[in-house]
Amino acid sequence: MAMAALRREGRRFAPLISPRPITAVRSSPLYPTLEDEGPLGLRHISTQVVRNRMKSVKNIQKITKAMKMVAASKLRAIQTKTENSRGLWQPFTALLGDLPSADVRKNVVVTISSDKGLCGGINSTSVKISKGLHKLNSGPEKETKYVILGEKAKAQLVRDSKKDIELIITELQKNPLNYTQVSVLADEILKNVEYDALRIVFNKFQSVVSFVPTVSTVLSPEIVEREAESGGKLGDLDSYEVEGGETKGEILQNLAEFQFSCTMFNAVLENACSEQGARMSAMDSSSRNAGDMLDRLTLTYNRTRQASITTELIEIISGASALEG
Amino acid sequence: MTLNLCVLTPNRILWDSEVKEIILSTNSRKIGVFSNHAPIAATIDIGILRIRLNDQWLTMALMGGFAKIDNNEITILVNDAEKGSDIDPQEAHQALEIAEANLRKAEGKRQTIEANLALRQARTRVEAINAIS
């Protein structure tokens, strides 16, 4: 009686042991060598393997969650600084205008990127725009050079534009960003690179989920004079009486240098903000994916476990019934 | 006609409100600005900015930069600025003495220039405190 019941139970379990029980796992590329054919033609995946994988995915999830929180706190710290520095370059734009379309002979593209990775696509967009600017501004009389800040842009641009790179600066964020450091940097660039127009490419931080690639243009004093003569926004410049210092040219020179260092400072801060924000969202989606993977693996694990228990039971039952005769 | 003054440094906005008159020290001379002044773009040296609100004068120490004056809007962009009331007199005097000592033992052109700069900055800060009292 009991045996008949158990046999019935055995039959009830039978549908579970269909010939190909674990299709999801079989299609994954990780298990090709670990399957073996057991009785009834079913494939056993060892529970140990699945358990190991679950453990490593769980660790990855923990790490990415932690990285997200670290990025969030760094973002908070640097966001206030960025907002305070935004007021700095606006008067310059009000006075001198932002003329991205100025046609000049010597262009210098200053690409700002991050040193560390795992921050989404912001560095690739910056590099893409820099390359676009380069293409736009190269011709018979024009030339474009690169100044690179940050490891990620360096890695991408060194590959195909090595001869156009003037200066590479990395490890910018080793010490907290401050104006003195950036103004020294700006000084270096102005000293070593000949330019008619400097185009700074960076990611502007609009909100925690939106980073807009932006180009800020700083023109050299000669070009400013030229554009002022041709009228337009800069035509108003002449209406300003210039005080202090000796000649108007010298003042314009100082102004251009100051404008460059202020714009650089703002650009570097904005890019740092965007980097942290992008890293936050990248790590967030990583943790979510890891969570999904963990769910799927748990299901697989349970199915494997139940299948092996069932097999054992059936063996025992059939063995016992065989003994009884 | 109200004159609006905005003093900005890379790290923060130091002043953003209306004033009656300011006295700015540019590279060449000191200029006083009332409302309806002609448009001016000026370079500012390391020195004092005096601000008059109604009948009270306030001092600010500026560390070099630019000023733009037009349409009753004054925008001052400087590398660094401190309100006279925010400076601690003890500390400012000490900084002045240290700067003077550094200048005396500076060797080489670069150190001399840096020491001179530091001295001027320290002097400006001390002046800023004295001007109030």
TrEMBL record, chain A:
SUPFAM superfamilies: ATP synthase (F1-ATPase), gamma subunit (SSF52943). It holds the Pfam family ATP-synt. GO terms for cellular component: mitochondrial inner membrane; proton-transporting ATP synthase complex. The keyword Nucleus does not apply. Coiled coil: none annotated. Keywords: ATP synthesis, CF(1), Hydrogen ion transport, Ion transport, Membrane, Mitochondrion, Mitochondrion inner membrane, Transit peptide, Transport. One of its GO terms (molecular function) is proton-transporting ATP synthase activity, rotational mechanism. The keyword Membrane applies. It is found in: Mitochondrion inner membrane. It is a peripheral membrane protein. Its main location: mitochondrion. Mitochondrial membrane ATP synthase (F(1)F(0) ATP synthase or Complex V) produces ATP from ADP in the presence of a proton gradient across the membrane which is generated by electron transport complexes of the respiratory chain. F-type ATPases consist of two structural domains, F(1) - containing the extramembraneous catalytic core, and F(0) - containing the membrane proton channel, linked together by a central stalk and a peripheral stalk. During catalysis, ATP synthesis in the catalytic domain of F(1) is coupled via a rotary mechanism of the central stalk subunits to proton translocation. Belongs to the ATPase gamma chain family. F-type ATPases have 2 components, CF(1) - the catalytic core - and CF(0) - the membrane proton channel. CF(1) has five subunits: alpha(3), beta(3), gamma(1), delta(1), epsilon(1). CF(0) has three main subunits: a, b and c. PANTHER family: ATP SYNTHASE GAMMA CHAIN (PTHR11693), ATP SYNTHASE SUBUNIT GAMMA, MITOCHONDRIAL (PTHR11693:SF22). This is ATP synthase subunit gamma, mitochondrial.
From TrEMBL, chain B:
GO terms for molecular function: proton-transporting ATP synthase activity, rotational mechanism. It is found in: Membrane. Its main location: membrane. The keyword Ion transport applies. It is a peripheral membrane protein. CDD domains: F1-ATPase_delta. PANTHER family: ATP SYNTHASE DELTA/EPSILON CHAIN, ATP SYNTHASE EPSILON CHAIN, CHLOROPLASTIC. This is ATP synthase epsilon chain, chloroplastic. It comes from Gossypium mustelinum (Cotton).
